[in-house]
Request: fold
Amino acid sequence: MTLQFANVLVFLGVGALFIFVNLLIASLIRPSKYSEEKLIPYECGENPVGSPWIKFNIRFYVFALIFIIFDVEVAFLLPWAVVFKELGWIAFIEGLIFIAILVVGLAYVWAKGDLQWVRPEERYE
Amino acid sequence: MIELKYYLLISAFLFSLGVFGVLTRRNAVNVLMGVELILNSANLNLVAFSRYSSSGIDGQMFAVFVIVVAAAEVAVALAIILTLYRVLSTVNLDRADVLKR
Amino acid sequence: MNLGNLDSLTFFYPELILLGGILLVVISDISLKGLRDRVNPLLTLAALLLALFYTLQTDHGSAMTLFEGMLALDNFALFFKAFMLVAGVLVLLGSLHSEELAAVHQGEFHALLLAVTLGMLLMANSAHLVMLYLSLELVSLTSYIMVGYLRSDRLSNEASMKYILFGAVSTGAMLYGFSLLYGMTGSLDLFAIRDALLAQEVVGFNQVTLMLVVVLTTAGFGFKTAAVPFHFWCPDVYTGAPTPVTAFLSVAPKAAGFAILVRFFLGGLSQPAGEQWGFISGIDWPLVLIVVSVLTMSLGNIAALTQNNLKRMLAYSSIAHAGYILMGAVLLTGTGLKAMLVYLFVYLFMNLGAFFVVTVIFNSEKTFELQDYNGMFRRSPFLAVAMSIFLLSLIGIPPFAGFLGKLYIFGAVIDQGLYWFAVVGALNAAVAAFYYMRIMKHMILENDDRPPTPLQISPLNRALLVLLLVPNILLIVFWSPIDRWTANSITLFGGL
Reply:
């Protein structure tokens, strides 16, 4: 028992060493020349435009929320799929009903205009 | 093999942390994070008990349901926080005090 | 008898009808643009009435479990199912002509009302910790949205926020208790849990853990029933929510909370011992709940004394009534349980009635303040008399239905020899009389200088008021069917 945890400790130690030793070696052998260009944040080679601390559009949140709900519902389908062959047709029909209920939810979101980036009518009074 | 009690200790720690967060935070979103910790501590318990007992996978099944309900709960809570923000322009719970008269 | 999945469906019509109703309301809301405001209430009403019809038709012979032991179908569950559906119908009718809700689109409101009713039906049936948790969350999540339904209203939003944060924490604590119980007994089925506890074949069984489980789960149930240490959300939420929603919350989810509390503690943690039930471990759990009950009614009544907002006053009054109802549950006897059911039944009509009068007055006056009720008798004698009857019923004055509830509850308590408990209850009823009378005094005796303009009441609202008045007046005469029905309804699966 304790010995098994010793393995974990050794792993932690080696992992920490790996990081710090590499950084140490790098700092010893690299040339140290700073310039304005090198100090700006790295954005895949482009020069950044504006501050990174902007407010994101609230629409991102709505999409994320809708995605999360439908994504998590799939968690129910996974155990269903595992035993699907043993249960046969009844399980298939049950799964279809479950998905049909979700489709009504999706249709609701669609009809309310929440799947478009700009909503057709703002309903918030 | 790690013993059951370590899981229980961690889950009790998570639960306490969640309750602490709920009681001390004034930002509604942070309170919600505390709630998530509470729910996940229960999940950890359920899965650990299910793994260490001979009762099948009941506990793991329960945990899947809890995860789904927690997602729905957060969706509703965030929507409510958002509408409150539209009205109040803040999510600080101390500012939501019109009802205390 | 345990039924499998497909066989259970024949006993599951009410729930299936409600589910179909939810989907139809959503579909009609997004497809019928012009007609939907007329079709949706009718669809909702039809679904509720049809479900009620099938609930009353259900002939199940003896108690049994459905869906491989997930749900228990017994007379106790049937009582609560009928109760929830009646409450749903009354609240739906009450919400139709409400100015508060008229300001916003109501399609979602009807779908939510059906969803919350479905959740409560399942709550009354649950015999498995997973179902217990899921149905509780279904009720909670939908009622959070219903409370915050007036999106641009600051009070409604605040109430909703408080409700969801309180609710999430209490159900989280309850879930943690469930997980400990699962760890101790190795099962999620309530009856298997009881058998495991009885056999003492429990891993790590000890009094402290079991007490922890009881405390944590009581947090969840206490939140739903608004019992005292978990009642802080209640006045704020009831004040902020749209009045029809407040009326609904103060009756139906509260009753569902009591159903689930009885099922968990009596079905899962107690064993039948003759007429009485014994709690499984040596812990004096009933004493804890007796203290909770005393605190609940005293605090509710005392806090109600100083309120000037009628909604808030009725919120505290509903906390106090939860205390009375709990009196019946903690006795652990058949008589106590029956008294609880009778009280809930009369409480449905008197409390919905009182809130409904508040809704009607708000429609034309736009106020909940008590002094604005001055001179109401001269402006609308019908409304003032109706409110007085509901209030007298809430006090428990003899000719009205509320007296029946109090009679049964106090009778059951005295039956058990808990005289001090009955005295505390009676003292509370006397305190409560004071603030209920205060409302009546403002409505009938006090007049302001303004000339009395008659108050407009829509015909539907007038009819609904009469519908609510009838049981309040007549139940005391025709009490024997209620007596028989509730006496029949205390059969719990695996119990009495």
About this structure: Residues 2-29 of chain A form the longest helix (28 residues). DSSP finds five helices and no strands in chain A.
